[in-house]
């Protein structure tokens, strides 16, 4: 079975441009999360979507937006790119939103990421 | 978000056990302890998680202190493929969102 796929694998943009990153979750997974990983740091949570609705948002500016489509794939959009947006952008999928209070086995499956370089 | 503390790096030899420590002195009663690892040039992958009791799976074991203020990920027989950054993460089971809060992690080096 195919894992989480992301496109493109690498991308170079200049300051002020915008970018769209794409993610296809594992078949049957309805939840998609986005993370930003700056070189040398752990991933930082950006968004989670479930059933096309935003279910969580990290501490990122409004330049970052996302959406989820009926087939559960997702796009991450970043406007007005800054040099500091250079990072590995990771997408993770899971079966569903964790059932609150149960600590259910809600492991997330990560894709290989998109390496964004802003010049 | 509850914080975890891990050593920046550890080194071990192939085919020997590895014990990766994690301190989480501010853990709350509803926090689960999750471990993920990130191999070079890959996204993180789930390793194991637990609440109070020790847990075993095909990848590793998780030993949780009685007071839950620390835990240890145990790789029983390390291979070169286990070289990765290992992240210890606390996740509040009350939260519906599946936000994972990653720290710096421990970079594990395995010597042949």
Task: Describe the structure in your own words.
The complex is a heterodimer of chains A (119) and B (112). With 119 residues, chain A is mainly beta. Chain A has no helices and 11 strands. In chain A, the strands form 2 sheets. In chain A, strands 2, 4, 5, 6, 9, 10 and 11 form a 7-stranded mixed β-sheet that branches. A 4-stranded antiparallel β-sheet of chain A has the order 1-3-8-7, with no helix packed on it. Chain B is built from no helices and 9 strands. In chain B, the strands form 2 sheets. Chain B has a 5-stranded mixed β-sheet with strand order 1-9-8-3-4, with no helix packed on it. Chain B has a 4-stranded antiparallel β-sheet with strand order 2-7-6-5, with no helix packed on it. At the A-B interface, strand 4, strand 5, strand 9 and strand 10 of A face strand 4 and strand 8 of B.
């Amino acid at each position: 079975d195919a894992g989480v796929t992301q496109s493109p694998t690498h991308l170079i943009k200049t300051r002020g441009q915008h970018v769209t990153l794409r993610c296809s979750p594992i078949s049957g997974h309805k939840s998609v999360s986005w993370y930003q990983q700056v070189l040398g740091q752990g991933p930082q949570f950006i968004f989670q979507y479930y059933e096309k609705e935003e279910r969580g948002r990290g501490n990122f500016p409004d330049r970052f937006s996302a959406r989820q489509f009926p087939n559960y794939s997702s796009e991450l959009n970043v406007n007005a790119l800054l040099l500091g947006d250079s990072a590995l952008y990771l997408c993770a999928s899971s079966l569903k939103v964790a059932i609150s209070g149960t600590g259910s086995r809600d492991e997330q499956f990560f894709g290989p990421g998109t390496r964004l370089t802003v010049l | 978000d509850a914080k975890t503390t891990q050593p920046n790096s550890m080194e071990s030899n192939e085919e020997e056990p590895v014990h990766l420590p994690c301190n989480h002195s501010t853990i709350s009663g509803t926090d689960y302890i999750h471990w993920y690892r990130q191999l070079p040039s890959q996204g993180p992958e789930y390793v194991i998680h637990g609440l109070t009791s020790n847990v075993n799976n095909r990848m590793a074991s998780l030993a949780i202190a009685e007071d839950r203020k620390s835990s240890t990920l145990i790789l029983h027989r390390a291979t070169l493929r286990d070289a990765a950054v290992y992240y210890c993460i606390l996740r509040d089971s009350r939260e519906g969102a599946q936000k994972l809060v990653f720290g710096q992690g421990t970079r594990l080096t395995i010597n042949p």
